[in-house]
Amino acid sequence: MANTVILGSGVIGLSTAYYLLQHQPGDSIHLVDSANELFASASGFAGGFLAKDWFRPELMPLAELSFEEHRKLAEEENGRERWGYAKSVTVSYEPNGPLLNGKRGEDWLLEGTSRAGVVDSRREHQDGEVPGWLRRVDGDSVSVIDDGSGTAIVDPLRFCKFLLEKVKAAGVHIHNPASASRIETDEAGKLSGVTTCHSVYTTMDALSPEVYSRTDGVIYVAGVNHASIPLPKPTVKAVTFNESIEKLKNIARRLIATPNGEDLEIVREGLCFRPITKRGTPYIARLPEDKLGEDFRSTEQAPGGVFIASGHGPWGISLSLGTGKVVAEMMSGKPLSADISSLGF
């Protein structure tokens, strides 16, 4: 059997390798990553928020598949204990009261990527739906976006480590740090339920913070986004900006109530780079043969191909398992579990 080489060993690459094991032996799969440290960016430092239906129509089949795969995998592998999987009650918090026409905290995620009407599905909260750690102020407003049936949470670092452990145990080769420098050809020259977790979206100081509580008691805070930070070299760990970190610390102190007014303990800090596309949806497809050199096109005698799965933006963790499953099916010539016909070139 021909070898399969996966470039990138973050959550998308690992998910693809994990599902590819259903179609071919582990020792025929190679994961290649040039970073000195795996999971040093978004795959290890992202929020880990999962959503079933916060997407535009062309992404909905993949999103629903991925959400279900996350649930099933957590059920089968004790995901709550191993990587902090849990349903998450998702709320919108406005410290200055209800907004009539203004921006809400979750709008940056919803705009351009959501199904029609999801923003209008907010409702008043009921008992138990507001996180106990949320610092309330007079005149504020909390509305429920999802009661936990369509949103969930994971710890991305623990999740990626779980996937890495599974594929390594199955014999998948991990090349790290390493870079793919050329394509090898054959002789013919051909291509060979106890704790409730919450997700809170709000607006503060012209920012849109996102706050997630996890099963281990850690509360994740993010939302200081910059579009102009230069991408570091793959082998260099991203360096955080002190000013941005201080903003997040101040937001955390304002939003999170601690026993006896104690200061917060900072567990980890990081900077995530998320690949995005101009159209706002990922590319998940086989690279057209006419984009490859003539000597590297697949034939009946030398099947294969080049496949791409990238550009998931803030939804990489949420869409990871669905992406891995359909890409593995594409590679293996199997029927696809979700319609991704709108995600090609």
From TrEMBL:
It comes from the Eukaryota. One of its GO terms (cellular component) is late endosome. InterPro entries: FAD-dep_OxRdtase (IPR006076), FAD/NAD-bd_sf (IPR036188). Pfam families: DAO. Residues 5-200, 214-330 form the FAD dependent oxidoreductase domain. SUPFAM superfamilies: FAD/NAD(P)-binding domain. GO terms for biological process: retrograde transport, endosome to Golgi. PANTHER family: FAD DEPENDENT OXIDOREDUCTASE SUPERFAMILY (AFU_ORTHOLOGUE AFUA_3G02360), SARCOSINE DEHYDROGENASE-RELATED. This is FAD dependent oxidoreductase domain-containing protein. It comes from Hypocrea virens (strain Gv29-8 / FGSC 10586).
